Amino acid sequence: xxxxxxxxxxxxxxxxxxxxxxxxxxxxxxxxxxxxxxxxxxxxxxxxxxxxxxxxxxxxxxxxxxxxxxxxxxxxxxxxxxxxxxxxxxxxxxxxxxxxxxxxxxxxxxxxxxxxxxxxxxxxxxxxxxxxxxxxxxxxxxxxxxxxxxxxxxxxxxxxxxxxxxxxxxxxxxxxxxxxxxxxxxxxxxxxxxxxxxxxxxxxxxxxxxxxxxxxxxxxxxxxxxxxxxxxxxxxxxxx
Length: 240
Ligand SMILES: C[S@@+](CC[C@H](N)C(=O)[O-])C[C@H]1O[C@@H](n2cnc3c(N)ncnc32)[C@H](O)[C@@H]1O
Hints:
The chain is 45% helix and 21% strand. By secondary structure, it is of the alpha/beta class. It has a single domain, classed as Vaccinia Virus protein VP39 (Rossmann fold, 3-Layer(aba) Sandwich). A seven-stranded mixed β-sheet has the order 3-2-1-4-5-7-6, with helices on both faces. Helix 6 packs antiparallel against helix 7. The two termini are 31 Å apart. The site of S-adenosylmethionine (SAM) has 25 residues, from helix 1, helix 3 and strand 2.
């Protein structure tokens, strides 16, 4: 059974995820930074530090949302970042942010689906995703299409939530994710399900070695997992 945001609806996971992010787009940035106590900003910086070593000129940021990872990726000095997302609402907020920062010539935001990217094969020097892959309807299909658009030797950098395994972080994290986060998320976002879906989708996600095995299976090489902040989140890297 797939974990979906709105269990009483008939739509598939992708349509529900899109609707959910359209619903919460205006509150997404605020909730992100509040609920992660600002650590999400550090996680993106860590990932871009890894990316920078490879000096990518053209970067694709998938599930770009409101553009925070795309903006952070500019620290790797690329010529251009293209962000794609299935949620128009999230992209709208992202476009406003990019305009306000005067970054329109360096970041382009487009509507697009990771499971059927509208780019030719071997096109990007790097593909990056932060907190997106957990939401894919078909994880392997999405990861395989990202591999298709990467140049041979190109780099993949993914950040995704993972499950801490060590006492007492596991217990603290579970209590926070099950009780605090859904309650705060519900009040601020006014969406009844979005912040219940978040811990459920993290729980269902094949993290750590399970995820690197999937990356190997769909065609990536040199796959690696770097746990961050007691294992609450992980950076995955790979090469095509
Ligand atoms: C949690 S947000 C992450 C946004 C941003 N990367 C960040 O770090 O804040 C997840 C995003 O994934 C997008 N998404 C989910 N499935 C997708 C897919 N198949 N293709 C493209 N975007 C997708 C959602 O619309 C949403 O904007």
